[in-house]
Amino acid sequence: MAEVKPEEMVHHPPMDQLQGFEYCIDSNPSWGEAIGLGFQHYILSLGTAVMIPTMLVPLMGGNDHDKAKVVQTLLFVTGIKTLLQTLFGTRLPTVIGGSYAYVVPVLSIIHDRTLAQIADGHTRFLQTMRATQGALIVSSSIQIILGYSQLWAICSRFFSPLGMVPVVSLVGLGLFERGFPVVASCVEIGLPMLILFVVFSQYLKHVHVRHVPILERFSLLVCIALVWVYAHILTAGGAYHHTALHTQISCRTDRSNLISSALWISIPYPLQWGAPTFNADHAFGMMAAVMVSLIESTGAFKAAARLASATPPPAYVLSRGIGWQGIGTLLDGLFGTATGSTVSVENVGLLGSTRIGSRRVIQISAGFMIFFSILGKFGALFASIPFTIFAAIYCVMFGIIAAVGLSFLQFTNMNSMRNLFIVGVSLFLGLSIPEYFSRYLTGAQNGPVHTKAGWFNDYINTIFASPPTVALIIAVVLDNTLDVRDAAKDRGMHWWERFRTFRGDSRNEEFYTLPFNLNRFFPPS
């Protein structure tokens, strides 16, 4: 075989826009396809919207009716936040949902002595919810100030493609515990779901119906419908009558009690749980979760821009989006969702799986969230899908996000030992440190930092339990202090230079300009 000359080798030049997408951020499929794709994004968002209240509401003292109401409220507010973000924020096709980053400070509020000693469960639930609302309302000011003052834009100018590799990658990889470990809790449902989804979305993606690649675009809906029916047959057939409680919770389709507990029609409204209460310790602890969700959302926005076939969001647009996310957290506090706001990572991954990055699709999904949260019984029907099914999908979606983060390496020089050191150390410690904090919390029921100052404990334990946050701290510090004078090109800074300002590239105006000619009143910098 003749030796291939270097100049004849296939070369893949770096591309600031991901190619191969059927519809990008500002192009739209037909209304029929858009509605179907929007409903698919709505179904995927149910996993987090159900899981967080299922985890927290019983610990607060709430019953099944309280849980159903919190799920409805979280979905309703998620729809509002998503519309605001896609219209006035970054304008990227992102769902703004609940965040697991807030679990640690919320658990701290739940275990507060003054609340834990309340004997009546429902009273304790209301008081705990009001305390959580107060902490969310106060802490939301962090993102609002950092976003609208453009302080986060100033900070983001220190983010190079090299520094963003571990951050965006760990936005996906850092959620590994919600992937196969949950699938394995009911392997007879989770594993078929995972295999079916990979086969339908990848191997059968060229199957067309009326010139539409039906399985590539709607494989999630098809697979969920098939496996959900299969799970219901197992449940109705008595397969789980004599199994452990944990197995029944993971596998049965009738264990959530959401359908029986939900009202037919219920419109969530601000202060529906009563007037929020304010406590300085709770608020300071919650501020750590706000910072974590800010960093995680920054990484997710970068990934969403790539998977919507858009250019990297300018610093001004990124900061604007963080400001609107702060407004979203404020809405979480006013309505009482038991958690704060962040970009839904799984929905960003679905953009890549379907190769549809249209903003309109996400706005339609927001409409479904609002509609089905008001029609409680119908929304509860979809929300009763076993979480194992969602976990199987997460295995793919979170992996796509991790790969998007790694794709930023194309802008850097990976023949540089400096860059290898920064990426390797930040990736490893970004996984290792949060894993230590997580295991310690599971075993000792408190974090490694447990001083007498509860707010300080929450702050440190929340920050270092987040893989993207740890990765950003390490990567950005190393990238901006280690041999930085001679490493500008190696870091990839020249690739993103024209995207640092709104007017630096003509495509920015196409992707990120505000609607209704609002840029006249809010001129970008």
From TrEMBL:
Which ranges does the record mark as transmembrane? Answer: 39-59, 134-152, 183-203, 218-240, 361-383, 389-408, 420-439, 459-478
Does the keyword section mention Manganese? Answer: no
Give any Gene Ontology cellular component: membrane
GO molecular function terms attached to this record: transmembrane transporter activity
Respond yes or no to whether keyword Ligase is given for this record: no
Which regions form coiled coils? Answer: none
The protein's UniProt keywords, in alphabetical order, are:
Membrane, Transmembrane, Transmembrane helix
Chief localization class?
A: membrane
Q: What is this protein called?
A: Nucleobase-ascorbate transporter 2
